[in-house]
Specification:
Elements: H1 5-16, H2 24-42, H3 52-72, E1 79-80, E2 86-88, E3 92-93
Antiparallel strand pairs: 1-2, 2-3
């Protein structure tokens, strides 16, 4: 199991590199989106700016990414709706099971 962002990206590329169903632009998005995270977390000044257009494009692409890969490899007993929210067929949002009783 990967324990770093780089490890996750490497494993993702390894698993998807020869799959013709995978949109090459969406394969690149995982590493590109990490750039946004790095800017948000660590950079300041002129280098730390993303335009509103870049941010909107990243959000739109993230939604496509989730939709695309959820269709290719759905999680057991769950689905992801178009907004990327995890849903189970019988109970709605995925979360801890209620321990009331």
């Amino acid at each position: 199991m990967s324990r770093s962002h780089h490890g996750v990206q490497t494993e993702f590329f390894r698993l998807s590199k020869d799959d013709a169903r995978v949109d090459p632009m969406l394969r690149r998005f995982l590493s590109q989106s990490y750039e946004f995270k790095s800017v948000a977390d660590y950079l300041t000044g002129a280098d730390a700016v993303a335009s509103a257009e870049e941010a909107a494009t990243a959000v739109t692409t993230a939604k496509r990414f989730l939709s695309h890969f959820t269709q290719l490899a759905p999680l057991p007993d769950s689905t992801c709706d178009a907004s990327g929210q995890n849903q189970t067929p019988d109970s709605g949002a995925i979360g801890p099971k209620s321990t009331q009783g």
